[in-house]
Amino acid sequence: MFKENIISELKEKINSNPTDTEGYINLANYYIGSDDLNSALNVYKQVLEIEPCNFQALINLGSIYFYKKSYPDAIDCYKKSINVEPDNYAIYYNLGNVYAEIENFELALSNYQKALELNPNKSDIYAALGYLYQDVDNLEQAKNYYLKAIELEDTNSENYISLANIEQKMGNTLDALSHYEKAYSLNNKDIKAAICLANTFATLKNFKSAQEYFDKAMEIDESYYPLWVCRAIAYCDDNNHTQAIAALKQAIEIDPNKPNAYILLANTLVDEKRYEEALTIYKTVQKIMPDNPKISAFIANIYVMLDNYTQATKYYKRAIKQAPKDNEIKLIYIEMANQYINNKMKGIYE
User: Fold this and answer.
1) pLDDT recorded at residue 28
2) Which pLDDT value is given to residue 3?
3) CA–CA separation, 107 vs 280, rounded Å?
4) How many CA atoms lie within 13 A of 76 on its CB side?
5) What top-level class would CATH report for the domain 1-51?
6) Residue 349 has pLDDT above 60, yes or no
7) What is the pLDDT of residues 49-90, one digit of tens each?
8) What are the boundaries of each domain within the chain?
9) First to last CA, the chain
10) pLDDT over 90 at 39, yes or no
11) pTM for this predicted structure
12) Under the phi-then-psi rule, with left for phi > 0, alpha for psi from -120 to 50, and beta for the rest, what region is 137?
């Protein structure tokens, strides 16, 4: 009721002075604060009908379009806002984000660089450039930008996590661990930092410390799906399949529509030679990802292990049809066929 009263009051002010854009802006901002983006979008459009060059409406409307993944509309709004405030670094930063999202590296880079020209001490721009270069696997350049972002703002845990991720990719596990620890020290409620620390300790075969940080992550949010998947992988690395299976089942219970936990669970069951159970799980995954050739091949592999060559052939053929250019699947199919023929020949001559 309180929300409705505020909206009603704001609308009354607009009705009393329908050409005053400030009233519309206040209403739109209230909608944004209430996570009602569609209503905010419509109000900002009304503002632009009255005042086409209203900067706040253009920039906020662009951000809404970006959030809704309507990227051409976002670009249009941001470009119009340049005509109003050509020296506002935030416009170019936002444009860079849009172009990065649609994987236009050159335009993302040029807009981020323009933002830096206008505001060379803004750490967020350096972090965005780090992410941009990381996305194209230019790790050295990405690392340099993250280091600069940290130099300008050394209290942002996200930047330390990003830098640590780069170090991990570069094979510098101990450096990565140090950065993850810094991120966690800055924000011990950051579940990503806790999980990254756990994963890194698992990589270093320090499974006791890994599980300690998984426990800390659970204290933050025990319903976080990636937590259980990562914990299961660590259990597998420690050859603790029983706990791995339990963790993966928990992940599936949290989000039954994501395939990762199902696939890992089926793979673990295969390692345990529990083929019938693994087959059931793979077939569940196939309902989620019906056109994935790898799943069809996994099912075929299980049927080979169960000596059911008829079903194995059926699923290998399905995998080949789904991925006709995948030579690996074709080779596995040929090997299976040869194995079947050899088995038949042994039955005849022995």
Assistant:
1) 82
2) 66
3) 47
4) 8
5) mainly alpha
6) no
7) 888 988 999 999 999 999 999 999 999 999 999 999 999 999
8) 1-51
9) 85
10) no
11) 0.82
12) left
Tell me how far apart the alpha carbons of residues 299 and 309 are, in angstroms, rounded to a whole number.
12
Mutual angle of helices 55-67 and 71-84, in 10-degree steps = 160
Cα-based distances in Å from 6 to 34, 220, 291: 11, 35, 50
